[in-house]
Amino acid sequence: MSGGPAERWRIGVLATRVGVSETLLRAWEMRYGLLSPTRTQAGYRLYGPEDERRALAMQAARERGVPAAQAAADILANERTRAEGHDRPEDGTVHSEGSLDVARTRAELEAAMLAFDVGSMHEALDRLLRTVSVETAIRDVLLPFMAQVGQGWESGDFDVADEHFASDLVRGRLAALAVGPGTRSGPTALLACPPEESHDIALKAFEVVLQRAGWRTRFLGPNCPLPSVQVAVDVVRPELVVLAGTLPQVFQLSEADVAVVRRLARDQTLALAGPGATAELAAEWGALHLPGDPVSAALSLVDRAREIPAARPS
Fold first, then answer.
1. Nearest to 145 by CA among 175, 121, 117, 115
2. Which contacts (CB < 8 Å, 24+ apart) does range 2-9 have?
3. Is 249 within a domain?
4. How much is the pLDDT for 95?
5. How high is the pLDDT of residue 99?
6. In this predicted model, what pLDDT tens digit does every residue of 108-157 receive, in sequence order?
7. pLDDT tens digit string along 202-220?
8. Do the domain assignments include residue 15?
9. Which residues contact 196 (CB under 8 A, 6 or more apart)?
10. 168 and 200 inside one domain
11. Are both 148 and 198 inside the same structural domain?
12. H/E element holding 139?
């Protein structure tokens, strides 16, 4: 049924070839990114054999009762895996480390995000957390997925609504994993993002890993004025304060804020984390530098817990 490699059709022709309505094709394209038409100089969409192949695969999956979001994610993940040069048998079996198929799971999350499909996104996350540990899920899927979403928003592939929807849902799931105090008796860490830092998902992931290792935490979140961090420290008296930032400029502080930072480093252990932090800046302020992804950074702290002294009196 497919035409030659250079053959392209308007959506009405594609609808006739695959036997579905134009409306349904448009929905698959807009909601799940299933189709990837080119455009003529006049702005008309033209569809090719690859779109026909995906539409037929979608039809077959829907006839088997597979939910639309999951079907689209599977189809796109299969194509991406082949494009990346990975081997995939004809029966569609995925070869992956352990039982986690990273590409497929991220594709499921992306398809659900584009459809604003809360149920499908939670289902994908539920399957993920049943398959691997929380730490693996965060490091290998959730944080790379959110980075992919951010890059897609910057490049114009995703709308800001997509990014907000995904961020809110992932932040909520991480918050649900950050359980109450229970029987934890490890060190106390106070976690905050400096002023001008509005991205706190990585820091929330960091908190989850610390909590699962028995640490107690207090989470102040994004855009936290440093004098306010000091107020919280004076009340909580944590052994550790972590300031996390994604860009170097969030650590370009005023003289007054640098004075607060130096006091924080003097009275308890202070650590700088995130891509915006550097070892040089940490050394200048008398702080620890926590390199790497949030999971690795948190686990490195857990390994060094005995080296972290109790907070000193002001």
1. 121
2. 2/49, 2/52, 2/53, 3/48, 3/49, 3/52, 4/49, 5/48, 5/49, 7/48, 7/49, 8/38, 8/46, 8/47, 8/48, 9/46, 9/47, 9/48
3. yes
4. 36
5. 59
6. 899 999 999 999 899 999 988 888 888 889 999 999 999 999 988 888 88
7. 999 999 989 888 889 999 9
8. no
9. 223, 249, 250
10. no
11. no
12. none
* Distance (Å, whole) CA 156 – CA 33: 14
Domain count for the chain: 2
Q: For position 249, what pLDDT does the model report?
A: 94
Start-end of H helices in the chain: 11-18, 22-32, 49-63, 68-83, 102-114, 118-131, 134-137, 143-155, 160-177, 201-212, 226-236, 255-267, 279-285, 294-303
Residue showing tokens 């830092």: 197
> Can you give the pLDDT at residue 94?
37
Residues 187 and 172 in one domain: no
pLDDT for 272 equals 96
Q: How far apart are CA 310 and CA 287, in angstroms?
A: 15
Q: What is the pLDDT of residue 155?
A: 86
Range of the domain at 143: 95-177
* Sheet of 188-192, strands arranged across: 216-221, 188-192, 240-244, 269-273, 288-290
In terms of Cα–Cα distance, which of 135, 139, 312 is closest to 241? 312
Any bridge partners for residue 216, and if so which? 188
Burial pattern 129-166, b for ≥16 Cβ within 10 A else e, equals beebebbbbbbbbbbebbebbbebbeeeebeeebbebb
pLDDT at residue number 4: 46
**Within a domain: residue 167?**
yes
The residue ranges of the chain whose pLDDT is under 70 are: 1-6, 81-99, 179-185, 310-314
Cα separation, 283 vs 232, in Å, equals 24
CA dihedral sign, ordered 297, 298, 300, 304:
positive
Last residue of a domain, one of 156, 177, 198: 177
